[in-house]
Amino acid sequence: MNAAAGGKGLRILASVSPGEVRVVLLSGDELREAWVERPARPDGVGDVHRARVSALAPAMAGAFLALEGGETGFLPDGEMPGKRGGLSEGQGVLVRVSRAAQGGKGPRLTARLSAAEAALGPAEGPPKLLAQGPEAALRLARALPTAPVVTDGPALAARLRAALGEGRVVLSHQPVFDAALDGEFAALAEPEVPLPGGGRLLIHPTPALTAIDVDAGPVAGQDRAAQQRFNLLAVAESARQVRLRRLAGGILLDLAGLSVKQRAAYAEPLGKALARDGLAQLLGLGPLGLFEIRRQRVHPPLHEVLAGPLTPGLAALRQAVREDAAVPGRRLALRVAPVVLAALQGLPGALAEAEAAMTRKLTLRPDPSLPLAGWTIEEMPHGG
């Protein structure tokens, strides 16, 4: 880790780049949490809205509420303070987003607000966003009041200092993510997780569930004690990856090379590893020998955030800004696939932020020969 990330204990690092903020929680040099936020497209969790009841849904034990911008959220009866029910169509309600939208469904809402949230405005009136939820760095800082916060974004540092106090937030003049942390962060988008001593986890999210397969590799041919040590490592790393990637819904874990009876011995260590994550619960060992885990969804899983052409485009912009800072004054051109360029152009503010951060305007060149994740940065000749 670089100097900004050095030391022991819990630390929060927030890396700001065009169109994106990446935040990590480190314990020593171990990655504990990882967040990717695109400020132009927030997930909405924690937002406080003045909403209007658009339809009652007694069969679903709740109501659909219209939010500003035409979005519709769902308010369960159990999330109304006091006596359940009692809503009527057209009624105004103050609500907070408790779970991000998913799969074409709108966000989940709650009307159980703090006094400060309830004072943000009257319930009656047209739907309106009254306050945005806290960004990841602030959420982590509030949850961990002794952890220092280091960021390379001046505007973010100013917002955090206003909320947390001057002494707790450090503004770094160097990128807070070094190459090692960049690589570890990027690996969270990959399906394969290497395990110490050989073997790997294979993580495959689907719309219905996530499958985690433990591949023992060279350990499979070793003695039973080696296999036991390997599976204990696999159990701990599986629980860590579930939290890091914010996997949600049903999760099936398939350990390596064990009978169903032998696998039962790993229920206790798996349950303990998952207990560190307040959103995860071990349901048990199924008849097929698969551990069944359920994790509550609040924010979108990382694989949803990182899917598509925008992620490689923002990585390319980030690298272009770094190369300009290393040798200012050069004329740089960025070649990306056309679909990646379109994604960058469709994200409000990203290209303008890159231009503002560079000493000379970045030339963008669509290149149909490049794959989705491929891009190149070239130095243009003077006068070219």
UniProtKB/TrEMBL annotation:
Known cofactor(s): Mg(2+)
Domain S1 motif: 46-112
Keyword Zinc: no
PROSITE patterns in the cross-refs: S1 (PS50126)
UniProt keyword annotations, A-Z: Cell inner membrane, Cell membrane, Endonuclease, Hydrolase, Magnesium, Membrane, Metal-binding, Nuclease, RNA-binding
SUPFAM superfamilies the record matches: Nucleic acid-binding proteins
Matching InterPro entries: NA-bd_OB-fold, RNA-bd_AU-1/RNase_E/G, RNase_E/G, S1_domain
Protein name as catalogued: Ribonuclease E/G
Source organism phylogeny: Bacteria, Pseudomonadati, Pseudomonadota, Alphaproteobacteria, Acetobacterales
